[in-house]
Design goal:
The protein is an alpha+beta fold and about 150 residues long. The protein has one domain. The strands form three sheets. The protein has a three-stranded antiparallel sheet with strand order 2-1-7, with no helix packed on it. A two-stranded antiparallel sheet has the order 3-4. A two-stranded antiparallel sheet has the order 5-6. Helix 1 crosses helix 4. The chain is globular and about 40 Å long.
Amino acid sequence: MGCFSWMFANCDNEKSLRLGRKGYIACPDNTFIEEPNYDGYGDFDGKDVYELVVQWNRKFLADHPEHILPRFHIRVDRFPWYPALADLTIPLYEIPERSKPDWDGELRMIGIDIACYNEDNASLAYPIKIVSNKKMAYDDLPPSKLDPDQGCL
């Protein structure tokens, strides 16, 4: 399991979410998920940010199989999990099982595939946006960039 941290979208991506500090996920519906003591693994109040980014972007990706992830220069429909993700009749929790035998990952891994790199995250309809407070609406925020120090400095 990797360690992840982000720059705060509401601070122009100049300040980072530090380990042990409070942060929020800004959600596309303008709600916020608070994490009072960030541990570095992408969990905010028991919700995984990479699973959330899959949930938020599922319909967009299903409707846009030609969407290219800039970092890899790969269309999303080329990933082994794509047919299950694009079939909107399949519940999210069944996608990993329905993606076998070609792929043996988990929903979180799809989120990492589509949003782990800054340019890929920014290319999504609903990118990850981590904030230090709840004062701005989701649509008014830029995508968060990865913290090069992973929350440690």
